Amino acid sequence: MQHLEEVKNILCTVLSITDRKDSLSEESSLLGNIPELDSMAVVNVITALEEHFNIVIEDDEITSKIFETLGTLTHFIDNKLSS
Amino acid sequence: MNLLTSFKKTKNSFSQVLKELGWIDTGIFISNKLLRLVSQDKLRIYKYYLVTQPVRDKPYLPPHRGKEIKIRLIDKTDAVISSFPRPLHVIESRFNCGAKCLVAFKDGRFIGFLWLQLGPYQEDEVRARFIPLPENRAAWDFDVFIVPEYRFGLAFTRLWDEANNLLSNSDIYWSCSRITATNSVSLKSHLRQNAECLGSAHFLCSDKWQLTVASLFPYFHLSFHENSYPKFYLKTKLMTSQSIS
């Protein structure tokens, strides 16, 4: 989980939940557990991740699966960066 | 499962509900459950928050997103209706009342819909009529459904971009809706999108009568037949839609 802290920072900044940053870990559930992460916010998070990591995330890659936990989201980013 | 484990589970569930809804709405939630149980569903309590949100003139999605999702305004003869997870008579009634239905498709598959009423809306869950004001400048949105496997993808935002487009082109500046009090996720989501809460309404319903108590006019209503219902005049701000960054 090379980029866990960066992904966490981006997530918390976009969702304006920096006060809860320290409580998030790799195993933390995202969808359904963070009320601020709704369908509208997902797009903003994706855009911020693309800009920060200089990657392109295709529409078909935006699914609930990558947002299951902070770990799955970070794993997704790690894979994008290594491919 | 022993009693202690069962008790702990119930306590945790209660705490979770209380955290999400607060004391009043949790009380209503529990009261409704008990009432339905003892009356064999003959008595029911509903509580709605009535909200209004500005029509956006800037899309949620950047131009390169969501192109694979096609949105279409349908009519009551459209074959896609057979895929809707709603009774046919409900769909027909909506169209007969002049409602508009935007449907989302991906690779030709139905993935979601969003309904709009460009005028007063006759509620079908309780006896009530919601009248967004000013007339011809405010609308009613209801029943946004996304097929489960496409949730948290782009279907929801694509539908709303098209809905805002349709409303904007119809000179509509605000859209109103009702949110069930137990749907705190939806309420908070609406408020994050610059929605305003205009008030709340409680309905105690039996098959024959209905008692309404609301924080906005008419405040109180007693109905003994289906053609008797409270009319809620929802006063939105008269303003042009604004870009929301």
Topology:
The complex is a heterodimer of chains A (83) and B (245).
Chain A: H1 4-15, H2 39-53, H3 70-82
Chain B: H1 3-38, E1 44-54, E2 69-74, H2 88-96, E3 100-106, E4 109-117, E5 121-122, E6 129-133, E7 138-146, H3 155-169, E8 174-180, H4 184-192, E9 196-205, E10 210-214, E11 220-223, E12 231-235
Parallel strand pairs in B: 6-12, 7-8
Antiparallel strand pairs in B: 1-8, 1-9, 2-3, 3-4, 4-7, 5-6, 9-10, 10-11
What does this structure look like?
- The complex is a heterodimer of chains A (83) and B (245).
- Chain A is mainly alpha-helical and 83 residues long.
- Chain A has a single domain, classed as ACP-like (Non-ribosomal Peptide Synthetase Peptidyl Carrier Protein, Chain A, Orthogonal Bundle).
- Chain A is 48% helix and 0% strand.
- Chain A contains 3 helices and no strands.
- With 245 residues, chain B is of the alpha+beta class.
- Chain B has a single domain, classed as 3-Layer(aba) Sandwich (Aminopeptidase), CATH 3.40.630.
- Chain B contains 4 helices and 12 strands, in the order αββαβββββαβαββββ.
- The longest helix of chain B has 36 residues.
- Chain B is globular and about 55 Å long.
- At the A-B interface, α2 of A face α3 and α4 of B.
Please name the CATH topology of chain A.
Non-ribosomal Peptide Synthetase Peptidyl Carrier Protein, Chain A
CATH architecture descriptor text of chain B: 3-Layer(aba) Sandwich
Q: What is the multimeric organization of the chains shown?
A: heterodimer
Low-confidence stretches of chain B: 239-245
DSSP strand tally of chain B: 12
Rg of chain A computed from alpha carbons, rounded to a whole number of angstroms: 11 Å
How many separate helices of chain A? Answer: 3
The biggest beta sheet of chain A is recorded as: none
Number of structural domains of chain B: 1
CATH topology of chain B: Aminopeptidase
**Integer tally of domains of chain A:** 1
Greatest chain-chain interface? A-B, 16 and 21 residues
Strand composition percent of chain B: 25-35%
- Number of separate strands of chain A: 0
Secondary-structure content class of chain B: alpha+beta
Under the CATH scheme, the architecture of chain A is Orthogonal Bundle
Rounded to the nearest angstrom, the radius of gyration of chain B is 19 Å
Task: Please give the share of residues in helix of chain A.
Answer: 40-55%
Q: Summarize the helix and strand pattern of chain A as letters.
A: HHH
CA-CA gap between termini of chain A: 15 Å
